[in-house]
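Sanity check

After download, print the first record. It should look like this:
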Amino acid sequence: MVDQELIEAARAGEADAVRSLLDRSASVTARDPSGATALVAAAYGNHLGVVRLLLDAGSDVNVKDSTEQSAYLIATSEVGEDTALLDLTLAAGADVNAKDSYNGTGLIRAADRAHVEIVRRLLETEIDVDHVNRLGWTALLEAIILGGGDERHTETVRLLVEGGVDVSLADGDGVTPLAHARGHGYEDIAAILTDAGANS
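Expected structure tokens:
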């Protein structure tokens, strides 16, 4: 009973209740019907104080729920530009190359959503910048194909290029990032790629 109460308190961001339940020996490894642990539940709400409590209590930062979401992967894509949760998970030993249900990395997820500060932070880690997901796309390709060519996605592309991505790595159909950018009329992105020596 206390185990499920812990998960619900974590989901609600109730730090005092979480602390009390931990004192009553609630298990940080318990899961709810969705497969979420208290840590995963807290991460979805970006409840930083609760996340700290759970990590200090021994929660596994790399555990995923039934949708293949870990606290770290949630931090890369589900809480906007705030890097605090990401920093907590990295400090706790998160696997930076963990994959989601699309076999995508946190960098791919952040690039897709143009979370510029998250992308910047991830590029400081040992993450595989050219990982290809189940769709046949890298972080660079996702930023172009799914991004709409807006200012934030353009900045994301610039950061990825500066971070050392392979600017000519094509998708599963052989279409390069530059070809995608030109095909969508994203002139600023095309210019960044051209300046970086991308093949068309």
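If your output differs, re-run the checksum step. Summary of this record's structure: Residues 96-200 form a domain with the Serine Threonine Protein Phosphatase 5, Tetratricopeptide repeat fold (CATH 1.25.40.20).
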